[in-house]
Amino acid sequence: MRLTHRNAVWLALAALALLTAASLMLGRYQIGPGELARLLWSKLSGEAHGLPPMAETVLFGVRLPRVAAALLVGAALAAAGAAYQGLFRNPLVSPDILGVSSGAALGAVLGIFFSLEVVMIQATAFAGGLLAVAIVYAVASAVRNHEPILVLVLSGVVVGTLLGACISLLKYLADPYNQLPAITFWLLGSLASTTRADTLSAAPMVLLGLVPLVLLRWRINLLALGDEEARALGVETRVIRPVVIVAATLLTAAVVSISGIVGWIGLVVPHLARALVGPDFARLLPVAMAMGASFLLLVDDLARILAAIEVPLGVLTAFLGAPFFLALLARAGREWQ
Amino acid sequence: MTAARSVCLALAFTAAAIAPVATSALSAERIVTDSAGRRVAVPERIERIFAAGPPAAIMVYTLAPDLLIGWTSATRPAEAEFMPPRYAQLPALGRLTGRGSTANPEVVLQTKPDIVLDYGSVRPTFVSLADRVQEQTRVPYLLLDGSLVTLPAAYRLLGNIVGIRDRADFLAQRAEAILGDVTAKVATVPRDKRPRVYYGRGPRGLETGLSGSINTEIIEYVGAINVAAEGAGPGGLANVSIEQVLRWNPDVVLTTDPTFYRTAFEDPLWRALPAVEKRQVFLSPALPFGWIDFPPSSNRLIGVVWLAHLLFPELFPGDVRKAARDFYLTFLHVELTDAQLDRLLAGAVR
Questions:
Q1: How far is A203 from chain B (nearest CA, A)?
Q2: Fewer beta carbons within 10 angstroms: which end of chain B, N or C?
Q3: Does residue A314 carry a pLDDT above 70?
């Protein structure tokens, strides 16, 4: 049985709000519901909260930016995944199919290799992600007389492999005492050191990437019918496809540059959303985003409360995502045809 | 039997005993035993040593720099300032062990080493690696145990192997004096009087060494409490969140990262930490070799002295500048100027 669209959206949003409130109270430093309410009220009204200043620092300096970052990263990755799965007419596609994650990873690894400052490492990661997809797209456009989707995916795989080799080379050459641990931590993904500035710098890019997806939501549905039929219905695939690719790339590159590599969300969450509301992109997009945000928030909560040290996000998402994906595969067939 | 005759006989026997060795090998050899218990035949005179990694290079450099064939990576200009030029100019040959080996066995052979030396872990991985490289290159490969407490023994063993016993014994005694003095004095401090230290690496200061990691070995050695060891158990390097650091609420923050050291005093999050507000953040000197963990070799001796002075000023009222000058002259072959000392210790002392 499928939920109605309206109910599904409300359910997803309610779950998200509950999780957000709970996440603000979870962590190594104790902040209870009463204290949370007092701190938030004091921020809104300007009244004194009467709590230790440490509580305010932890909530507004550490936890709120981190929760916001988890929401942003989760929503953006799920949106990009949903867009790509529609665009490529393939449920096994994830946001890094065109090499955006590998490109961002290479950018970040280069930044670490040359001992740049954190902000510059984020910038090189962002630029690397965009550049990788631009190269893939240019290569695919140069190849004619082939199924365009196939060529895109193939060049994405090839360029991704090449970038992976560059990353391995840099890891090999990096100084094993300082740079290699930093590279490894980046590739595992983490929101441990996310600051307000990080979240605020990624948010506009995410918005910029979301706008075309929202505006094109009906046309993306038609893309799923295949090039010829879409064209017969008046959708110019040669224009829409690059727009969707640019939008999804922007989304992914912006968030990966602040979180490091976080896999699985862009692959698994759109499926879950599709199971709830069906394949209509106009419904799928908001539900997938709410679920992606909730999922990453949950995973990040685990990452920071399981142990005194941080558990890498990439490890946790795979541990949670892989069994789930296998279960989906076992039920496949009916849902996806 | 007269004394003269017995000497003659003894000489004859000795000659007979060494004759087969002398004729079968191109040059005289002797058998030495390394820290892993491997018995290896080495040339009688050792003049060229290939260091398998940075820690081994520093051991050779401190004991007998003229035997060192090259460094594992090129000396950076900032490091070269703290070395005699002829040693700073030694070639970069790559490293043979550790995380990612970059030295080519042919390069090892081309440099015509008398021995290959590795200083660090003597666990089975590294023992088997030593055997493999030795078999492949036919160059004797020796392993020295790299833990801090066995440093004096490592110097004596290395001195025996290369035949530089006097200087090795001298350095071993200096090391024993430093380690013994710190251990004895710190032992008198009850646990609740020991400073709780957070070691923050990386540009954001959020990488730290867990209990038993080589990165924080000297922090624990000087009797300080590593907050990450207390809270997270054993391990190597790990990421932590600032929230966790706030909760640990350390008395002192140590770092090796100049970027983190600069930003810690300005960042409102770090300033929420009482230790930062009281300016108890200290930057480890790093030239030509790091004082805390980078690389883990005999350079950490001066780190022990520095940390003892920094964390227990009542027990160690002496001048850390004098100790540093001594150490650099004795172990690192350079006489520090006052300006160099100032730069070295900027951010490292109260």
A1: 21
A2: N
A3: yes
Please check whether residue A315 touches B, CB under 8 A. Answer: no
pLDDT at A145 over 80: no
Q: What is the ipTM of this complex?
A: 0.73
Report the distance separating Cα A314 and Cα A293, nearest Å.
Answer: 15
Of B102, B206, B294, the CB nearest to A178: B294
Token pair in block for residue A269: 């969450």
Percent of chain B with pLDDT over 70: 89
For residue A46, count CB atoms less than 10 angstroms from its CB and return exposed for 0-12, middle for 13-18, buried for 19 or more: exposed
Report how far residue A158's alpha carbon sits from residue B330's, in angstroms, rounded to the nearest whole number.
55
Q: Considering only A22-26, A228-232, A239-243, A277-281, which range has the smallest mean pLDDT?
A: A228-232
Asked if the Cβ–Cβ distance from B239 to A175 is below 8 Å, we say no
Asked whether A84 and A93 are in contact (CB, 8 A), the reply is yes
Rounded to whole angstroms, the Cα distance separating B132 from B118 reads: 13
A185: CB partners within 8 A, 6+ apart: A260, A312, B207, B239
pLDDT above 50 (res A40): yes
Residues in chain A closer than 8 A to B269 (CB atoms): 57, 61-62, 195
d(CA A279, CA A224): 10
Please give the mean pLDDT across all residues of chain A.
86
What is the β-pairing status of strands B196-200 and B252-255? parallel
Task: Return d(Cα A82, Cα A238) in angstroms, integer.
Answer: 19
For residues A224 and B6, give the distance between their C-alpha atoms in angstroms, rounded to a whole number.
Answer: 102
| Ramachandran sector of residue B212 (left: φ over 0; alpha: ψ -120 to 50; beta: rest) | left
Q: Which residues of A touch B239 (CB under 8 A)?
A: 185, 190, 192-193, 309-310, 312
Amino acid at A96: D
Most confident by average pLDDT, B67-71, B90-94, B264-268: B67-71
Helices A281-305 and A265-277: angle between axes, nearest 10 degrees: 130
* Beta pairing partners, B119: B144
Kindly list the distances between the CA atom of residue A198 and the CA atoms of A120, A201, A211, A254, A335, in Å, as whole numbers in the listed order. 12, 5, 21, 10, 38
Contact B69, B135 (CB under 8 A): no
Residue B96 phi/psi, 5-degree rounding, is -100, -20
pLDDT at B116 over 90: yes
Alpha carbons B206 and A206: distance in angstroms, whole number: 27
First to last CA, chain A: 17
Residue B67 DSSP symbol: G
Q: Is A310 on the interface with B (CB under 8 A)?
A: yes
Distances (CA, A) of A257 to A16, A187, A227: 24, 11, 33
> Which domains are seen in chain A, by residue range?
5-330 (1.10.3470.10)
Say if residue B82's pLDDT is above 90.
yes
A201's tokens: 């710098």
Structure tokens at A96: 């890094």
| Backbone dihedral angles phi then psi of residue A19, each to the nearest 5 degrees | -65, -40
Q: How far apart are the first and last CA of chain B?
A: 73
How far A78 CA sits from the closest chain B CA (Å)? 25
DSSP A127-186: HHHHHHHHHHHHHHHH--SS-HHHHHHHHHHHHHHHHHHHHHHHHHHS-TTTHHHHHHHH
Is pLDDT at B4 greater than 70 in this prediction? no
SS3 B42: strand
CA pair distance A91, B183, nearest whole angstrom = 63
Q: Specify the DSSP class assigned to residue B272.
A: T
